[in-house]
Design goal:
The longest helix has 13 residues, at 31-43. By secondary structure, the chain is of the alpha/beta class. The protein is 42% helix and 17% strand.
């Protein structure tokens, strides 16, 4: 089955992804709507990747973490947080890095000993 990429973010972000051909984009208006949309997308069998703006992810961080724990062992859909027009959020752990570490068993992104 083909898996789709879906974008959840602010209007300017979703518009940009629409222009490059991503059909499914959503612009939630509040935290409740963001949680509701993420819940629906996590249950959709045809969704492979959810591109989620970092600012929305920060607003619903606990909800996302709870859903990730509930879905333990499930591969799809993968939530990838991407910066919006304000740029990346500083001093936050990269959730994708944690997913890779869990999948592989080690931190392959570590810079220790690479000199």
């Amino acid at each position: 089955m083909k898996k789709n990429v879906v974008v959840v973010g602010k209007k300017d972000m979703t518009l940009g992804f629409s222009l490059v051909g991503i059909d499914e984009t959503f612009t939630p208006t509040d935290e409740y709507e963001s949680k509701k949309r993420i819940n629906k997308l996590l249950e959709a069998p045809d969704v492979g990747v959810i591109l989620l703006s970092e600012s929305i992810a920060e607003d619903i961080r606990e909800h996302i973490q709870k859903k990730e724990r509930e879905r333990k062992g499930t591969i799809y859909p993968i939530i990838v947080e991407i910066p919006d027009k304000k740029g990346p959020i500083e001093d936050k752990e990269d959730p994708l890095k944690g997913k890779i570490k869990r999948a592989v068993g080690i931190d392959i992104t570590s810079q220790e000993g690479k000199e």
